[in-house]
Amino acid sequence: MINGASNNIALDKKIDEIRKALGDSFDVVTETVSLVHDQIITAYIDGFIDRDLMNRDIITPLKNVIFEPIIESNTNCITKKALDVYEFANEILTGQFGIYYKNEYFLFDIRKWEKRAIQTPDAENVTRGPKEGFTEDLITNTVLIRRRLKSPEFIIDQVKIGNKTKTLIGIGYIKGLADCDVVSQIKLKLQLIDVDGVTESGKIEQYLERKPLGLVSGIGLTQKPDIAVTRLLEGKVLILCDGTPHVLTIPELFIDNFKTAEDYYHRVFFGTFLRLMRVIGFLISIFLPGLAVAITTYNMEMLPVSYLETIIGAVANTPFPQVIEILFLIIMLELLKESGTRLPKTIGSAVSIVGALIIGDAAVRAGIVSAPSVMIVALTAVSSFIIPNLNEFTTIFRFVFLGLGAFLGILGIGIGVVFMVTQLASIDSFGVPILSLKSKNIWRDTIFRVPFKKQKYYEFAKQDGYINDI
């Protein structure tokens, strides 16, 4: 009787110790389970494990053992041991099921939690090609890639980032295609990140980029497994972050923003046409407002007389210079985009469309802005949606070129082009200049998509010295 009481006291102390190591939260479950001749302590996070597996493959077999149970051999799950209570607690916090028995800590991987189903990402809709998109679960994302890349040379290394969150980060690459120096640099930079928590790959991107104040990081982004596999075959490195569907690709050239996986599913000429449309849309979204203001303010001789008369007649009836009109409309556009993004999907689309129509029409009728200014900003807005990955870049430089065009005319636009190209030329992604049209790791097709039979791939690039082995 005395031995039983002392044993219960020891178990109670051990439960307190385990709960203290786990944080003593309401969702921490620690229970004493009675076996035939002894007792064990079970510990897990509520909602993290499969209770059916726990009862069927662990608890029930242990209760049926007549003599002293051997945890490893009397359960139907793979078992591993923890060295101390702190390692035991850390593994339980990742979702594992734990048992304490006779001064030993046992762990079982029976994790199961709710996760979002695989869906098509809103930002990367396609008319032809796979519709699947990444989810917030790291293992699900690696499976989506493995289904398409059945190669033993595809490696995924794992690191943990965050002193509090301990977020799992996967580093994926194809051995023999990826540059070993790039892989080593990425691993080193990730290991040097000292922060309490990482919840999204956007934070990792900012830690990895060399120029934090630059508008382009040299790090790509995708939510589609087929694009991720294409990038891997080009010799790039993937960074997968548990808890987010956004996967980073390194290195990312500037020209890669104009290419999509869908280009390769179409015929050569149509694929090239789509890329040219993206380039034209990119140029319009950046230059059109500033160029329009520069020409109508300083260089009117560049316009046909009939068109110039129309613009002068429209602007003459408004109280503000055209640069103020366009600036007002661009700010309204950004406000509508932001409100449409934050509101629920059904309401947001209605607000964006109706708001733009009503505000634009009302502003023209009230004589606040001219119709040509509305047309310029509308064309700029449509063009900016073609390349969502460059949204930050196009938005900032749109204001830069608008200001330069208003103050210096065509000369200001030229100065802005030099500044923009200089900034882009100064950025490299882990040793690869982002303005390169041909890096040592990618197919040699840029704006013009060449047929697959003409593309020089791994073996040719390796002969030319573009690829290093790992």
Mind explaining what this structure looks like?
- By secondary structure, the protein is an alpha+beta fold.
- It has three domains: 2-108, no CATH class; 122-252, no CATH class; 264-429, no CATH class.
- The chain contains 15 helices and twelve strands.
- Strands 1-2-4-5-3 form a five-stranded antiparallel beta sheet, sandwiched between helices.
- A hairpin with a 2-residue loop joins strand 4 (97-101) and strand 5.
- Helix 10 (322-342) packs antiparallel against helix 11 (345-365).
- Residues 439-443 and 457-470 have low confidence and may be disordered.
List the helices and strands and how they pair.
Layout lengths: L1 H21 L5 E7 L4 E7 L5 H13 L15 E4 L2 H9 L3 E5 L2 E5 L29 H11 L5 E8 L5 E8 L5 H12 L9 H8 L11 E3 L2 H9 L3 E5 L5 E4 L17 H30 L7 H12 L5 H21 L2 H21 L5 H14 L6 H18 L1 H16 L2 E2 L2 E2 L24 H6 L7
Antiparallel strand pairs: 1-2, 2-4, 3-5, 4-5, 6-7, 7-9, 8-10, 9-10, 11-12
Question: What are the defining features of this structure?
Answer:
470 residues, five-stranded antiparallel β-sheet, 15 helices, 47% helix, elongated, disordered C terminus
Instruction: Describe the sheet with the most strands.
Output: 5 strands, antiparallel
What sort of overall outline do the alpha carbons produce when their principal axes are compared? Answer: elongated
Beta-strand residue fraction? 5-15%
* Domains, number: 3
Query: What is the average of the pLDDT values?
Result: 82
Query: If you compute it from the alpha carbons, what radius of gyration comes out, rounded to the nearest whole angstrom?
Result: 30 Å
Pattern of helices and strands? HEEHEHEEHEEHHEHEEHHHHHHHEEH
**Share in helix:** 40-55%
Low-confidence stretches: 439-443, 457-470
